[in-house]
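Subject: mismatched residue count in predicted assembly?

I count 1076 residues in my input, but I want to confirm that the predicted structure covers every chain. Input:
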Amino acid sequence: MISVEYLILGTVLSAILTYFVSLFNRKLASALVILVSSIVFGIYTYSGYSGSLSAVVELMPNFGYFKVTELGLFFTTIVTFIIAMVSFFHPLYSERYAHPHAFQFLYLLVLAGVIGVFNTNNFITLFVFFEIVVWASMFLVPMSKGVKPTITYFVFSTVGSFSLLYAILYMAYGFGSTDIDYVLTNLTGTPALIVYVLLAVAAFAKLGAYPFFTWLPDVLGETPDPVSALMSGGIEKLGAFIAVLGLVRIAPTTSYFVAVGVPWQNYIIGLLAGVTIVAGTFMAIRQDDAKRLLAYSSAANGGYILLALTVGNTVGFTAGLFHIFAHAAASTAAFLAIAVVSYRTKTSKISELGGMIHHMPITYVVYLSAIISMAGIPPMGGFISKWLIFQTLIQNNMIFLAIAAFMGSIGSFLYVFRILAGLFLGQKLPKYKDVKEAPILMLVPMILLTILSVVSGVVPTYFLTWIARVTTSLGYPALATSDLQIVGFNGVLDAPMIALVFGVGVFIIFILFLIFPKSRKVGLMDTYTAGEFIYTEELLHYSADFYAPLERLYREEPFVRKIYASIRSKIMELGDFVRYYFFTNKPEVTVFWIVVVLLIVVWGGIL
Amino acid sequence: MERMSLMRWGLNNMAVILIAVPLLLAFLSILSKKHGYYALIFAMVFNVSFSLYVEKGLVSIGHFGPVGINLLVDQYSLIALWFMNGLFFLITMINCKSMKKLATVLLVLLAGLNGLILTHDLFNLFVFLEVTGIATYLLTTENNKPLSTFNYLVQGTVGSGLYLVGLMILYSMIGTLNMNQIYLGFITNQITPDKVVIPFMLMVIGLGVEAKLLPFNAWVKGVLEEAKPLSGTLITSVIAGVILLVFGRLLTVVMMISTAKVIVTVILFATIAGGEVAAFRSNKMREILLFSSVGQAGLIIYLFAQGLLMPAFLLILANMLSKFILFSIGAELAEKEGDALENLRGIFKHNKLLGVSFTIAALSVSGLPIFFGFIVKLNILFGLFNANDLITPMLLLAVSLVEGVYFIRLIVQLWNGDIEAKISNRLLIVSTLAVALGLVVLGVWSQPLTDLMSNINLDMLHILQGGTV
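Triage response: the counts match. Full output below for your records.
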């Protein structure tokens, strides 16, 4: 009998085993990580969906309380799959880490934690595993660079988890129980509102939504490349899980005010999600580092997920879950593609690259499919979820938020094109003339993820049936579909047909490409410079200052960075104050303070 | 009352020899300095093993008014004895090179600490406070910073002076210094809490100097910022723990300071926040640890003042264990490469086992699960919520975030970098690793310890109300 407990314990034990294997043979340990994470994914998904996964706890009484739910199955399947896919990068990447042995151990610990978070019916168990994921993944961050991104990650994650912890304690205080189902179904009135806000804060912090979204670029841009993929595609989804608990299962809460048909608190959360989409997209447009760009785009996509979940109907909930899945597949693929580029060239700066399509055609296709899925272009999975989000927003007359969502979609074309044109197309620098395509081992997960993105966009109804199991289990009816079509409020989406049209279009263009004469390849130095000497050819690279006119309009995210910096410096100043006035080397200062306190005491006593 | 002063003269009821043996050996060790080392080891081994054997009970020696000696062994002091004597033994053995010179001082210290845990009357508390204090002053001379030691001496003396003044006023008011009688006086309304608030506050301030409460703790920085492994670890782990345990017993049993709650709360919150922000500001190894222990001390006393005995006790034990690991490793590293963190970057790469222990201890102090600190944190927060306090948990979580940040910064810096230095103190490596594993075990399976503690609160009151132990 397979149980959640055995899976977790097995993963932890193999994590320890991997560490010791790694001491002797690093490659073997990486292979072990691939094996373990794939097997865990396989066993979990198989036994979970065949109904044979048990939640009984035998070996860890009082530590974990597990329960297999449809929602948990959905999330665990996605995240363990992503973890398994990313693990394929370890054998070749691990020699670049500061602590390769510990890396393997921590990676599998994250996997164990993830299973625990999603498969429990107890808030304390959820929190324990949530924190295990936080600290285990936190130590993955500094494997390549310094301290700062680690601290950033810790601070924002901890803001989220403390908000979650406070909510849990508050609910336990009110109900005397930490049972998730019991507590969430019985919350009403003001406590419901408080818990709703606290869980929203937790979800926002973990998912990287405004005003917490600065951590995504700062951390994902600096961590080892596979870790960025893991965080964006996998760990971030913990925030989405909390969002489902808070935004979907508590909402709709009772409210005194109603804004555009939804309670005001839902609308405010929706509004912040809208801000996330717009700010994330616009910040992504001006990034020169491909990883930072993708991180901002990740934040924007987190905004879409939150927006969909706040609406509070079947279409919104389904759209949110579909987008969680579509984004996990696409962003992991995109980050992995960038990881390949940076594995070969040691940089992920767009202005330092170019013309990679000549060396890495498969990586290019993977990246292209991933990023058009993230931008919501057919025939990709991301298109389906965005279509559903627009449907539900328009149906609920949330025009303002719909505009934000549209703006994000249009803006995403700009940042999609930036990487595409600057990194993969265009002229290549002479120093990269010997760059090769990714090794087979790295191509495997990328191709699998791409296939998943395409299939979910071409025949979405299969995936919608999967998602319907989750929505119906939480009391929302299944989304209306007929054969391979999705029935929306104001029309029918025939995804296979769209894909067919798209395919035909691509085919025609391909024919034209074969017929027409080939373009002539021009070297970067082959240019007219009006008598000037060229010393640094990088400056001639056309992707430097790619969107200069647009970038001049804004510089950084609204408000937040300055506020965070000022909080930090205020704490520093307070620390200086304390050190200067209290921890002196003069005993008379202490005596002075003692006298002051005594005076207060005596005075208070007389009074 | 009569029943309590009766005692069975069995060996296992003679808690007093936990104090008497080290004290006697301390005098003897003066006669023969060469053998002081062996005397110390004998005393430590004796105390560790006898503390496992000693039975619960109340021991009264002499009945001469205010200065009769009362010792109480209940669940609280029993657990405290195990942890204190065990850690004292470990710390001393790890630093056996520097301990040889200080054998007599350490023997006196051991006697004083055991006395502080066991004593059950306010006058003997003063005596043991002075004994411990003097031993600690002498211990800090190891650091070769006479000015700091002098500062500590001055402030410690002012503190114990205030305690003594409070004691005198109290005695003249209520005519007893026996904790039982004071407690019973409160229960039977013979003593009104309002009247005795001034002497008690004087005692709080006096003890506050030793317990590192904020405006009275200037000595901490000088004494600890360059403390050697032996004295530093003893002060942050064992001595700090014992003083806080004493504070806890006083606040729970006798000190009725409810009328002065505002000023006490202000002092404690200032201590918590001040310690944590000062540690956040620092980028020196031992400084971070010393400021952090200031913040923790404030939190512990706050919990005692709120009546949350068990969370506070758990926090003391967690701190004794983790501060033992942090300070003994931290001081050892700092002695080797200097305190500045940039000189220590990546030092754990070559000292992996020390690094693992240090990391576990730091994560435990930051309250992350599967470590003991997490269980403690949950206990604290649940305790506060059950006491209908919804605001303090928020403040504590905010402070805990600050604390987490500097500890994580510390660990990450120590793991990542290219300083090459090797520390080869085997005993240090083994014992810190063992204690670190203990933190993990207690974090995953804390049932035995919490079971042991579950009746602490009742236990203490039970005895005081005249029940048998």
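The CA atoms of residues 308 and 316 of chain A lie 5 Å apart. Marking this ticket as 'not a bug'.
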